[in-house]
Amino acid sequence: MTPKKRYIAISLAVLSAGFAWWLLPSGMEKGSALAPSTVYTRSAEAGGTENPCPNEHPEWRKAQTIDGVSIDEALSCDPDNPYDIAAAVKGTNNVSMATLMQTRLAQDAVVKSDDLDGDGDPDVIRIKLEVVELNGASPDGEFLINTFDIAPGLKPGLWVFAPKSQGMALKNFFTMQANPLLRAPSPTIRVEQGDKVFVTLENIHYLPHTIHLHGVDHPFMTAAGEDNDGMEEHAVFPGASHTYEMQPRHAGTMLYHCHVQTAQHMMMGLSGIFVVEENKPNNWVQTFNVGAGQVRHPSVQVKENYNREFDLLYQSLDKKLSSVIQEANDVRLIAKRMSREYNITESHENYFLLNGHSFPYTVRDGLIATGENEKVKLRIANAQRSPIALHIHGHKVTVTATDGAERPEAARETRDVLDIAPAQRLDVDLKTVNDGLHSYGPGVWMFHDHASNGETTDGMEPGGNISLLGYRAFLDEKGMPKMHGEMLDVAFDKNYYAKKQPPWAEGDFTAMLGEPGLIEPNVLKLVAFGLAGGAAIGFAVYLIFTGYRNRKS
Question: How many other β-carbons are positioned within 10 Å of the β-carbon of residue 178?
Fold first, then answer.
């Protein structure tokens, strides 16, 4: 074979092989933009769709009295344990053992005593908090421990302050799910103006932490001359405890958070609302509001002016930071990756939470459930890194206080978008009077962050901190909205937030808006692949044969 013929044969072999590779078919192929038909294909994982309302404890919703504590009705799907509420109001030292055993609270989680001003309620309040890790790696295997889903199938690593608890951290012996007391967000803490309050951090975690009382009236040092401001230079190390002391003179909505490596620890979840209620006679306040936003035993001052009260805590998580505690068990590795390798200036907010959950879980326990012609108090705190533009559909609300300071009547604004800076708190009056200003009428009205990333979950929408304002007539017997079934069915499928299915996966428009799906390979393409592949093989054999013949001759 002449060099010229060899060069041409090699070129044709390479071109034929390349063309065959380009045409390489599979058993089924993704449809193109011009696919003749679409086929809905969901994840092969079984059991992807959850029940929108598991309805585990319907008896918890009803108004009831436990150990003399009156507990308001809850209209939402997933209300708080009323026994937790009773213990939080009276103190774990003042309820019956039967009540305490219906909670996971330790006997000294909240101890109330000494009516110092003689007005019928306790004035010495001792609170004990722990730092709990959720969705962290287990040293015993390739699984997460103390799991807490923020949305279907999503378990980012996070930390929370939690009331001191008893018994197992898990819900039961047959699951890795954390018990209901150990959940995001950190509980709202309520005390009364003038109370002598002692908050003890018992640090059972593997990293140092503090509690900073943000906006709460407290002295710089304790009575013993120790740190009382919760700064990083006075960190509470693993196995140690520290008590912060205060006797707040000013009522209002405040914050508390960890101030050790604040950028990382707050974004890991270590923050909560701290409320100082106005001093009133016989004012037994609900010291812990764990989980769901509704305050089911409001203070005397709130009861005098409002029909209902809700705490709304907004937080965000960076999945890169959250993954640190899921990829290592060695504390030194975690500290290195979190402190020296992670850079918050290059980070992102991927998950946006309202009261510890993202949509659609926010509909279970972050729902503002109310009736017509009511006045509702909202305490709103922004513990995330970015500002919030909170918009409530169908309503305009009035801001009555900012950062715990009452606004004069002349300075109160009525708005349908609330600008809330990081660490800022607003007290808001929501009136459900159908007058065209405060309310446009009954319904199921969305409320959400109007900065669009806040209503997504790692980019998937609807998600994030979206929730609903639901009027009683538009909620079913489980506390779920009646008119949002189709969308909720899609959102409660964990395949949705795993990005394995489109928003319109089912229904009349699936063929138009759903997954392009899989189609049979093109017959002409198969023929062309066969010819190209055969040509490549033929030229290769020809080259080998002629080369062998030339060497032999």
Answer: 23
58-77 pLDDT, tens digit each: 999 999 999 999 999 999 99
Domain ranges of the chain: 3-31+518-551, 76-298
- Judged by DSSP in three states, 481 sits in strand
- 424 token code pair: 């800022």
Half-sphere exposure of 41 (CA within 13 A, CB side): 13
Rounded CA separation 185/203 (Å):
18
What is the per-residue pLDDT across 374-416, written as a single tens digit (0 to 9) for each? 999 999 999 999 999 999 999 999 999 999 999 999 999 999 9
Cα 465–Cα 466–Cα 467 angle in degrees, nearest 5:
115
Query: Euclidean distance between the first and final Cα of the chain, in Å?
Result: 12
Q: Angle between the 523-552 and 3-22 helix axes, to the nearest 10 degrees? A: 150
Of 281, 297, 301, 277, the closest CA to residue 289 belongs to 297
Q: Which CATH architecture has domain 76-298?
A: Sandwich (2.60)
Per the CB < 8 A criterion, the answer to whether 60 and 74 are in contact is yes
Between CA 276 and CA 175 the distance in angstroms is 37
- Cβ burial, residue 174 (10 Å; 0-12/13-18/19+): exposed
- Among 93, 96, 97, 100, CA closest to 125: 93
CB distance 432 to 376 below 8 Å: yes
Cα 231 to Cα 71, 212, 234, 241, 262, distances in angstroms:
37, 7, 6, 15, 10
DSSP of 195-261, one letter per residue? Answer: -EEEEEEE--SSS-B--EEET----SB-TTS-B-S--GGG-B-TT-EEEEEE---S-EEEEEE--SS
- Check residue 44 and give its pLDDT: 40
If you average pLDDT over residues 110-123, what whole number do you get?
A: 98
Among left, alpha and beta (phi > 0; psi -120 to 50; other), residue 134 is: beta
pLDDT given at position 37: 34
418-473 pLDDT tens trace: 999 999 999 999 999 999 999 999 999 999 999 999 999 999 999 999 999 999 99
What's the rounded Cα separation, in Å, for the pair 535 and 98? 84
Tens-digit pLDDT profile for residues 18-39: 766 766 766 555 544 433 333 3
This prediction has a pTM of: 0.87
Give every CB contact of residue 264 below 8 A, 6+ residues apart in sequence: 321, 338, 339, 342, 344
